[in-house]
Design a protein that fits this description.
CATH class of the largest domain: Alpha Beta
Low-confidence stretches: 23-42
Strand content: 15-25%
CATH architecture of the largest domain: 3-Layer(aba) Sandwich
Helix content: 25-40%
Radius of gyration: 21 Å
Largest sheet: 7 strands, mixed
CATH superfamily of the largest domain: von Willebrand factor, type A domain
């Protein structure tokens, strides 16, 4: 991820918005969200083991004296949301004059900042082939630099089976799962979305495509090479072929949009050449992802 995506003004704007999480939060440590569970924010509920990034002021030192381990007190009303960000790190994401990979990393950084700023817990998962690389669980503003460090180390290569990758992730309790991808994936996308819903996740699909894919400016005899498989194909680009491509692309995006509508998930299509400000303060707000 090249450069600093936040200038001072953008940073200040981010501090005034938050992720709009609709679901009932009934697990996790005390955070910045109100739960519909009975009780007040000072009513004790349960314990869980301490994880890096937790507020050390919530450590129960009496429990540490008894068990030799650090435990966090959980409360009834204010609960954190667990935000899982899944980044498609296949080679096709590294395509375009304005690379989809760069926008994916920027959006992941923004979503991480918003979550940490609201005392939610964040985990970044980069997926490629049938593998998933999982960051440590992070909470608190001081962990934002760790998010950036993880994002900077993501490499985009190979292909991705989103379905197989995400099913390797342990999802315990309610949370939010954000998938950032061009969705040129092997496997069944509908299956993994339904799986996440079954696992009590609020699902957000961010569909990234570049200008070259949305509005290809091609003509004549060309040779196309698949960036993931290396497969090559010679084609003759005509106006009729471009119309067929546009129809297929619309069908592709509409099918994903309709699928997310049926299961109550969020969907947005983003062009990788859009400014990060436009995406966050227009598209995110218009689709209700942030408030």
């Amino acid at each position: 991820m090249k450069g600093n995506i936040f200038d001072t003004e953008f940073y200040k704007k981010l501090e005034n918005i938050s992720l709009n999480v609709r679901m009932l939060m009934n697990e996790g440590a005390a955070g910045g969200r109100k739960s519909k569970a009975k009780g007040s924010s000072v009513e004790f509920s349960d314990y869980r083991e301490y994880a890096r990034g937790d507020d050390f002021r919530r450590i129960d030192w009496n429990a540490y004296g008894r068990f030799g381990k650090l435990f966090i007190k959980l409360f009834m009303e204010e609960r954190e949301a667990l935000i899982n960000i899944f980044i498609d790190s296949s080679k096709s994401m590294d395509f375009g004059e304005h690379k989809k990979s760069e926008m994916a990393l920027k959006l992941s950084a923004v979503l991480s900042f918003l979550a940490l700023n609201n005392l939610d817990r964040v985990c970044i998962n980069d997926i490629s082939e049938e593998n998933i690389k999982i960051s440590k669980s992070m909470m608190g503003k001081n962990m934002f630099s760790s998010c950036i460090e993880h994002l900077q180390n993501i490499e985009f290569s190979g292909s991705t089976d989103i379905n197989r990758c995400i099913k390797k992730k342990a999802l315990n309790g309610r949370g939010v799962s954000v998938i950032i991808s061009d969705f040129f994936t092997e496997g069944n996308l509908e299956e993994v979305i339904k799986y996440l819903v079954y696992k009590k996740q609020e699902v957000i699909l961010i569909h990234l495509l570049c200008k070259e894919e949305l509005k290809p400016e091609l003509e004549g005899q060309i040779r196309l090479i698949d960036s993931e498989t290396g497969e090559a194909r010679n084609i003759a680009v005509t106006s009729q072929l471009l119309k067929r491509y546009e129809a297929s692309l619309n069908e592709f995006t509409n099918n994903i949009k309709e699928l997310t509508r049926k299961v109550g998930a969020h969907y947005m299509l983003i062009e990788s050449s859009d400014s990060i400000e436009k995406v966050v303060f227009e598209k995110f707000i218009n689709t209700g992802i942030i408030r």
